[in-house]
Amino acid sequence: MTKGIVTVSLKQNVLDPQGQAVLHSLQTLGFPEAQNVRIGKSIEVWLEESNPQQAESRLQEMCEALLVNSVIEDYRFEIVEV
Amino acid sequence: MRCAVLVFPGSNCDSDLYKAANSVEGLEAEYVWYKSESLDSFDAVLIPGGFSYGDALRVGALAARAPVLKALRGAADSGIRILGICNGFQILTECGLLPGALHRNSGLRFICKTTPLQVVNTDCQFTTGYKKNSVTHIHLPIAHGEGNYTCDSETLRKLEDNGQIVFRYSGNNPNGSVANIAGITNEAGNVLGMMPHPERAMTKWMGSEDGRILFESMRH
């Protein structure tokens, strides 16, 4: 069994209003060094697949088919053994 | 003209859309469940607003992969009219029948109010009635948290050059959408996605009857 951990983030040129709101809060709380905040998400997928190359290729397909909207999002992932 | 009103788990404007379409002479609406595999007997498809699949993963993402989508793609290719409203618009961008994407309103708030719009293209298959009535500015309700339309500059240029932008917000832009976009069509012009709700503006007592003309235009 392996697990894919996909990290999805908004593309740099897409405005992240949620991140901006959190940035503002951080600065209000006394963290003036906080300069920018971008909020993404993490998706974990457990796979019945022991071959890491095979798992990687299938996970890539999943990202393209559903997990990521390439119009507004970027992603990266790692495969870990579980 | 027989219109399919698609119903996904979590659709909540399906009943409004069904009643709006049926109130227009010449349109006959029928509900079609998201598991249906055929839309062959219909002349138009209406995709309602709501929160399909509870907005899980991304708005419209799971509905855009539902079984009925295969038939919807076939319907789009065949040239029949497809209208997606609010979540319906989100589903159309997620499945790729319309370019771009819809994401969180720039002000983060869910906005529910009547908003002024400019009918930018009165020659498209959904707006000829506005031209006939010499109407270029209308009022329709919006109700969404993720109506912020975005696309890259190349796509925007194509939308503008091809006349695919049908509605723009004419007052303050409520959600931060690129170029004040409120509704667009595909290149062929038979698929329209829009965030405002024409089905909620069918008679005077609703506050506006500007939506009726859109449904009437679909008959021609």
From TrEMBL, chain A:
Cited InterPro entries: PurS (IPR003850), PurS-like_sf (IPR036604)
UniProt entry keywords in alphabetical sequence: ATP-binding, Cytoplasm, Ligase, Nucleotide-binding, Purine biosynthesis
Recorded GO MF terms: ATP binding; ligase activity
GO BP, sorted A to Z: purine nucleotide biosynthetic process
A matching Pfam family: PurS
Transmembrane region(s): none
Cross-referenced PANTHER family: PHOSPHORIBOSYLFORMYLGLYCINAMIDINE SYNTHASE SUBUNIT PURS (PTHR34696:SF1)
Protein name, UniProt field: Phosphoribosylformylglycinamidine synthase, purS protein
